[in-house]
Amino acid sequence: MTPSFLETAPVAAARVTLLLAHGAGAPMDSDYLELLAEALAAQGVRVLRFEFPYMVTRRALGGKRPPNPMPVLQDSFRAHYQALPGPVFIGGKSMGGRVASLLADELGAAGLVCFGYPFYPPGKPDRPRTAHLAQLRTPTLILQGTRDPFGKPEEVAGYELSGQIQLSWLESGDHDFKPLKSSGLDQQQLIEQAARHTHEFLRGCAQLPG
Questions:
Q1: 184 near 161, Cβ under 8 Å?
Q2: What pLDDT is stored for residue 210 in this prediction?
Q3: Residue 165 to residues 66, 134, 181, 182, 205: CA-CA distances in angstroms?
Q4: Which helix (H) or strand (E) holds 172?
Q5: Could you tell me the CA-to-CA distances from 3 to 38, 56, 59 in Å, in that order?
Q6: pLDDT for res 48
Q7: What is the model's pLDDT at position 1?
Q8: Rounded to the nearest 5 degrees, what angle is found at the Cα of 139, between the Cα atoms of 116 and 108?
Q9: Which of 25, 7, 172, 159 is nearest to 93 (CA)?
């Protein structure tokens, strides 16, 4: 299957490109990813989204389908990355970010950005998905809500993470960066915060002027 992409481009010429994978339960054009892609484009980032095979099938035939086995997800990510003139930045939402993190060093990506990393299954911080993150060599930014059931500050603080990883906590945000009403913020504002942090990180990795 020929790799295909959903592109969100900035108004001005893009300075960096981010290949962005979706999470386990929602497609590449979910409301969350639409908001995120637009916020990143407003910062000058070209965003290319794609879908893993199970989501392509779900779009064609309908119905809910579980994610493909990890080797299939990784092969799909590789194929989409290799279809682009690189190196480019890679990343993803939740599961998509995890897949990207497993491939970042192998692909020689310019950098890695994870939006809501699934550090552990909800309620099971004793089952971390972090072993590979201790040896990660690729510059990495993880943006995480402080209420994310897949990884809260107090648990994540106990994990061994590579010195290449920067953590950026979004106050009161959940897995989709939705904050508590008492915070005085809304999801759009937290997503825009995440986009600004991402742009600063990408700019630093690419050694671009401000």
A1: no
A2: 65
A3: 29, 9, 30, 30, 12
A4: none
A5: 22, 11, 16
A6: 98
A7: 65
A8: 105
A9: 25
Q: What angle do CA 10, 15, 115 make, to 5 degrees?
A: 75
Q: Which pLDDT score is estimated for 33?
A: 98
Regarding beta strands 89-93 and 16-21, do their DSSP bridges make them parallel or antiparallel, or are they unpaired? Answer: parallel
Regions in the chain scoring below 50 on pLDDT: none
Cite the DSSP H helix spans in 83-141. Answer: 95-107
pTM tops 0.90:
yes
117-164 pLDDT, tens digit per residue, is 999 999 898 899 999 999 999 999 999 999 999 999 999 999 999 999
How much is the pLDDT for 2? 80
Which of 183, 50, 25 has the alpha carbon at shortest distance from 169?
183
* Phi, psi (deg, nearest 5) at residue 10: -70, 160
Please name the residue that has the structure tokens 């799909």.
76
How far apart CA 42 and CA 46 sit, in angstroms, is 9
- Pick the closest to residue 15 from 116, 102, 85, 88 (CA basis): 88
The amino acid occupying position 171 is E
Name residue, tokens 């893993």: 52
